[in-house]
UniProtKB/TrEMBL annotation, chains A, B:
Gene Ontology terms for molecular function: (S)-2-hydroxy-acid oxidase activity; FAD binding
Entry keyword Kinase: no
UniProt-listed Enzyme Commission number(s): 1.1.3.15
Necessary cofactors: FAD
Name under which the protein is recorded: Glycolate oxidase
Taxonomic lineage: Bacteria, Bacillati, Actinomycetota, Actinomycetes, Propionibacteriales
Enzyme class: oxidoreductase
The FAD-binding PCMH-type domain, residue ranges: 49-228
Xref: InterPro entries: FAD-bd_oxidored_4_C, FAD-bd_PCMH, FAD-bd_PCMH-like_sf, FAD-bd_PCMH_sub2, FAD-linked_Oxase-like_C, FAD-linked_OxidoTrans_Type4, Oxid_FAD_bind_N, Vanillyl_alc_oxidase_C-sub2
Length: 470, 470
């Protein structure tokens, strides 16, 4: 294998002939027609830059992925891995002259082991499909990003996706035991283990999780599972102000309760959902909190009571345990529908900051002030229980001035999150949208450590160039 | 700062004058008298090689650690970090011509935050001391290695230490949120975060945890805490054979129970403990299992019943829920005392393999067969619930032939663990004793990834050279 430097940009005259790669793979693996390359050119981060790729590869096996990476190494062609394209930071956005590797045809659940409590899956398996397959055996795969009906385990691994139940059960990375990976030198290797514990060497699994395809292309994932849990109980609180809802979140933490969900939606979200699909949620308030607890039996009831007491002591205008499961499910459906409902109003710039739980009220107040200051509509959904806020900045389609103001608001929110001791991305990843934020968050010496690791594992610079760190 | 290549070995004529370093630090920081350098020359891995260090440094602050590392970089001197020296793989063993950095004088709990549920500590804090400090505020730091009365959080981080409750609550790395580190280029940096979630950049925290001081020297640790949990209930089972006890472990997993402890002790351990301290445990059996469960209220009682049923269906000669807390504590005390009790019989070569839980019975049978085959005494303690076995090979003091046979048994156990789909080290780390095992476990391409990362973060090769990977 001879290696070339990665081409800095697309230059048609200079591009290698992808037919050579196509010939190495089963027919139908490589797509080059403009409709296909356009369809795979970016994820859901509308505001991040992207380019039409040279080609799209849809391999059906790990060896196929290795063949693609080796060809890219030989020809100095960038490789951009892609799950379902539901990412919100541009991590899967195509690079000019590069090849997008879509894992849609590697979507098998290979094995579920009820004794070791693990599942082995291909990266293209949809999150909800894995959960359903596990449930059939009395097992549970917890990580549940809002994109779970569409997003894939491979994409979840690439971004270390969070979700709703993560406040109690942790994020994707907490469940990844082992990975099969094509490395930046074109090797197909396994890292990690199938045992409950293990410290044989550096934790390469955790290093790869969340690295957004910049340190290797994941071709198989082994995840840890839990036994199915007790049924959840729901507590709902309505609040006259965002800040009061934030105070209630901090009160739950102070009470020593770990809810299995603690979500915040503001009035803008509820209005947008109600205008789109009438879920029958009467919301005469500025924010609602949706909490769930899942301790078994009487302990769960005590948890629910403690959450309720925290809501009431924080000034909820109404708070109740929901005994009506349909009603509770409608509330959580509203939370899940908030993002697409808001997108109907115009392009949405999605924030993803995370602050210490005790700073949530303060941070929500700062977000509101930023909206006023820049004259932009900011709706708020939040995994409030772990301080992960998603201010959604909505601009009217085609309004360029509003778009500029939205960008300024986005930058200010990042600045305020850092001032609150927070981070620029709680669960969406750095991709392209948070590269400046990352540079603001990390000291230069730590960025240098990132670059050194990247050079070590992607010595030829072909793996998703331009993402995370330069 | 000018840099020198690391000296390959001690050569008195060629060694730098440590007085130059001592002059940069408060009086008493640097020890060079032979009694001191001998005292810090190795950890508890008796069989691993070690050397008398050039000096011992006992810094009192992070800046002091940086000063030491920078001086070592300038003079090409190896740096070996050391916690309490309770390690069992030789990771803290001194290197000829090197400096041992002991964190014993950096032992403060700096902050416990009950709302964010985290603690910030210096690396020299003893594990049990942190747990006690947290308990005063209704909080709990779970990782509980058997060395917890002596071992330090810094050492626990270096090895990613496990423990008894890890079967339900995870290992040290699952609790580390952030680290302050002196890097291989002499920078003092922070990695990680204080928020519940965060994906800003690569997971350098997990990479550093378990890296045994080869990628940086940890000078401060931020750990996640849990609320205090419900009281535990204990179930004890006596078994006529090791294999039957192993079957009971697999039966508990199949029953969908996650115990908060599931420990195995064999007759050799019980005999040794009884001969040392009479704990009143009558053990007419080949192995006992000690299980604990901690679901709250009736759910916990149901868990205990399910564990009991698993023990009985696997052929326990006696099994019971222990309502006598003193009796239950005595059982767990025996588990904790097993290692020092066995050491009274002669040098102990400690194994630390981990296999899939379903393979525990098979692996225990293989260990017994290896003991017979090599004519060595092998006692077994095990964190059986997560498949982490500690066969302890005991040889009479001074019996060189037995020592050679023990080494052969050690190697065979590693081989059998790998054949069972296991790992060569579940929680003790690679250090020196498991370097060959690591090379057997990992493919060459994965070892190359380790080396590339090590070169990236320790470009001058001063950080604990010779440990983990070359």
């Amino acid at each position: 294998m001879t290696l070339s430097a990665v081409r800095p940009q697309s230059d048609a005259a200079d591009l290698p002939d992808v037919a050579g790669l196509a010939a190495l793979l089963p027919a139908g693996t490589i797509l080059t027609d403009p409709a296909s390359t356009a369809r795979y050119s970016h994820d859901e981060a509308e505001w991040a830059p992207w380019a039409q790729p040279l080609a799209v590869a849809r391999p059906t096996c790990s060896e196929g992925v290795r063949t693609i990476v080796r060809w890219c190494l030989e020809h100095g062609v960038p490789v951009v891995p892609r799950g379902a394209g539901t990412g919100l930071s541009g991590g899967a956005n195509a690079v000019a002259g590069g090849i997008v590797v879509s894992f849609e045809r590697m979507a098998a659940v290979l094995r579920i082991d009820p004794v070791e409590r693990l599942a082995v899956v291909q990266p293209g398996v949809v999150n909800d499909d894995l959960r359903a397959a596990c449930a059939e055996q009395g097992l549970w795969y917890p990580p549940d990003p809002a994109s779970s009906p569409w997003s894939t385990i491979g994409g979840n691994v690439a971004t270390n996706a969070g979700g709703v139940c993560c406040v109690k059960y942790g994020v994707t990375g907490d469940y990844v035991l082992a990975l099969e990976v094509v490395t930046g030198t074109g090797e197909l290797v396994r890292v990690g283990r199938e045992t409950a514990k293990g410290v044989a060497g550096y934790d390469l699994v955790s290093l790869l999780v969340g690295s957004e395809g910049t340190l290797g292309l994941v071709t198989e994932v082994t995840v840890r599972l839990r036994p199915a849990r007790a049924p959840e109980q729901t507590v709902v609180g309505f609040f006259g102000s965002l800040v009061a809802a934030g105070e209630a979140v901090a009160a739950v933490a102070r009470a020593g309760i770990v809810p299995s969900a603690l979500e915040l939606l503001d009035q803008h979200c509820l209005d947008a959902v109600n205008a789109w699909k009438d879920l029958g949620i009467d919301a005469d308030c500025e924010a609602i909190l949706l909490a769930r607890v899942d301790a078994p039996g009487a302990a769960g009831a005590a948890e629910a009571d403690a959450v309720l007491a925290s809501f009431e002591s924080s000034g909820a205008s109404f708070a109740a345990r929901s005994d009506d499961e349909a009603e509770a499910d409608a509330m959580f459906a509203a939370r899940r529908l908030a993002y697409p409902a808001l997108e109907r109003l115009g392009p949405v710039l999605t924030e993803d900051v995370c602050v210490p739980v005790g700073r949530v009220p303060e941070m929500l107040a700062r977000v509101q002030a930023i909206g006023v200051q820049h004259d932009v509509l900011i709706a708020n959904i939040a995994h409030a229980g772990d301080g992960n806020l998603h201010p959604l900045i909505i601009t009217p389609a085609g309004d360029e001035a509003a778009r500029v103001r939205a960008q300024a608001a986005f930058d200010d929110i990042i600045g305020e999150a850092l001032a609150c001791g927070g981070t620029v991305t709680g669960e969406h990843g750095v991709g392209l949208l948070k590269r400046a934020g990352l540079a603001a968050e990390l000291p230069l010496a730590v960025l240098d450590m990132h670059r050194a690791i990247r050079r070590a594992l992607d010595p030829h610079g072909v793996l998703n160039p331009g993402k995370v760190v330069g």
